[in-house]
Amino acid sequence: MLIIPVERQLNWRKPPLMTLAIILANVLIFFIYQSQDEKLLQQGVDQYIDAGFVQLEAPVYKEYLERRIRLQLDDRVELVDEIQTAIDEKEEGWLAYVILLDPGFYSMLLDEGTLFWQNDVYFAWKEKRAEIVEKTINNISSLRLGLIPANIQMSDLIGYQFLHGGIGHLLGNMIFLFLLGFTVERALGKSKFLIAYLLCGVCSGLFYSLFDSKSLVPLVGASGSISGLMGMYVAIFGLQKIRFFYFVGVYFNYFTAPALAILPIWIGKEIYEYWLGEASRIAYMAHAGGLVAGAGLVWLLGKSWLQIKEEFHEPDEEQQDDAFRKSYAQALALVGRMEFDNAKTQFQKLYEQYPDNIGMLEHLFNLEKLDHSSGGYHAHAQQLIDAALKKNFFSLMLDTYKDYLKQAGENSRLALVYHNKVLYACLRHDSPTEAERAFERLRQHPNITPDVLKEACQVLMQEFQKRQQTMKVNKYQKMIGELP
196 in a domain, yes or no? Predict the structure, then answer.
């Protein structure tokens, strides 16, 4: 059974860069670094078979498994029969793979090999077997950077989080990482998200190791870190009701529940599957440890270092639309009652909340026009021209420019650059007449410089040359000649 939250929609205007970077790192490590594993293992198998170690070790390996099963240290009962069958049928390749990938057996042989073989055989075996292990097996990614509970290294607590046992393992983890990561990253910010993600993985690995501290089998995968994201997600939303997606067998659906309610369900599921499932293959306790670590990080540090960003709790898109319509209607009502100062305040708030809504800026400009001697009128004129140019609303830009110049008259405070912007925009939109009018305003501006004027003349010359309007070309050519 899978249960994952699906409350938030991804905002691609603010993509989860750190989540995407972690996914990319996992993918590159799997397809580049881990791609050497198969070659190394095959080299080890070939050398192992050539050395004649299959016949030497296979019977001992069978006894080793049987002893561990009797001591309840291993549950691979079916493997004992498979080993005996492979010995009888002389399946050396399969036996070599199984034995070489069991570091616990190799460790046992180093300590107790003389109990099974004579000293001369043991020491000859030891030298050659060590060479095979060091040059091939120990360089396999899972043994080099995987987390081995019996020999925990700090580097392995980080490294194991980026290794995977196969393409299916990688794909499943990356899907969950994306679904949970983009929401948690938005809540914490990129840097804190990365630290929290890695820390959950560390706690997950340590928690897993507590339950199998003598194991030499490496743990790999991002599952513990991703379970930590689940814990953080739940802790962030708390008692808020959110949507969850669940999948059982071939059936899937959604249900709504407080985010906090899923925490004991998830932990219970992991512990149940640890005791009754195939615990030797799946690190359920690592998942449970990551989940607890993620929730604990938010609860313990949420008011200090791991502060949740305030903007994370903003309403969803539908709620925003309702809030906008309500506030907009209030602002229009204030205009209808001729409460212009209050209306300006309301529209200013709306523009700050919805900076992409150019209509709010238009309302502000028109309200400021009632008293065009105010500084706000000049500022909003420039803002509206900039916004219209950015969105390529040429008509709105030109109407605002002409309206402002008409109202402001000699009191115009429009910066030199705006006349230049309008001139170029008019030429791009095939309005040479309006471009010439903007040029005249440019010429009269108190801050005009010869270089700017020369450049404007050259642009107009080029435009009228295309149109084969010789008189216009000569006019601007003459202007350039008169410039200092």
Answer: yes
pTM, 2 dp: 0.59
Least confident of 59-63, 90-94, 289-293: 289-293
Please name the amino acid found at residue 268: G
Q: What is the mean pLDDT of residues 138-144?
A: 91
CATH code assigned at 7: 1.20.1540.10
Contacts of 147 (CB under 8 A, 6+ apart): 156, 157, 159, 160, 205, 208, 209, 218, 219, 220
CA 211, CA 287: separation in Å to the nearest integer?
13
Judge if 366 and 425 occupy the same domain: yes
How far apart (Å, rounded) are the C-alpha atoms in residues 310 and 297?
18
Q: Are residues 338 and 462 in the same domain?
A: yes
Measuring CA to CA, which residue among 52, 74, 53 is closest to residue 63?
74
Residue with tokens 């089998």: 217
Contact, 2 vs 251, CB < 8 A?
no
To which residue do tokens 């200013």 refer? Answer: 348
Residues 332 and 474 in one domain: yes
DSSP H helices in 302-357: 317-336, 340-353
| Tokens of residue 209, six digits | 């190791």
| Domain membership flag for residue 150 | no
Separation of alpha carbons 339 and 327, rounded Å? 15
Residue 232: both structure tokens together: 């953080």
Q: How many domains does the chain have?
A: 3
Question: Which domain does 55 fall in, by range?
Answer: 34-140
Query: Looking at this protein, which amino acid is placed at residue 332?
Result: L
**Taking Cα atoms as reference points, which of 410, 402, 355, 406 lies closest to residue 383?**
355
My answer on whether 236 and 322 are in the same domain is no
Q: Report the pLDDT averaged over residues 21-44.
A: 94
